[in-house]
Design a protein that fits this description.
Blueprint (H helix, E strand, L loop, with lengths): L34 E3 L16 E3 L4 E4 L12 E4 L3 E4 L7 H4 L12 H9 L30
Antiparallel strand pairs: 1-3, 2-3, 4-5
Amino acid sequence: MTSITERGNPAFPWHNESDNPCTSCGACCAHFRVSFYGAECDDSPWGTVPVELTESLTHSRQVMKGSNQKKPRCIALEGEIGKCVSCAIHPLRASVCREFPPSWENGIHNPDCDRARAAHGLPPLENPDIVPLIPDDTPTTPRNPKRAA
């Protein structure tokens, strides 16, 4: 098994890169309840999430403190949403956090990402595969085909 600091989902390799849109957002951490199986807590043999930052949700599920409120905000979220944020336990975070992709990662739209961003007044992430219209571009005028006589 790899060390805790090497853990992460290889399907999302850019989660630690400087162009990560999540480091200037944080909306999902302050919009959704962060719940996961209790065995992910560090009081279990293979768990990593610090148990002192969680509370019981059911007999087998834990929730990050602060995220099970009417206005949720995960206790591990640091910084200002939409400006500069980070996760205080990033290498130890729960699977639900590791597996939540921002919109358009690997070309896949995530409407939950858009919904969380909208709840905090942030625009949806743009699809990088869509080429924007350059203001100097002149639209072409469609021509109707000539009718045969």
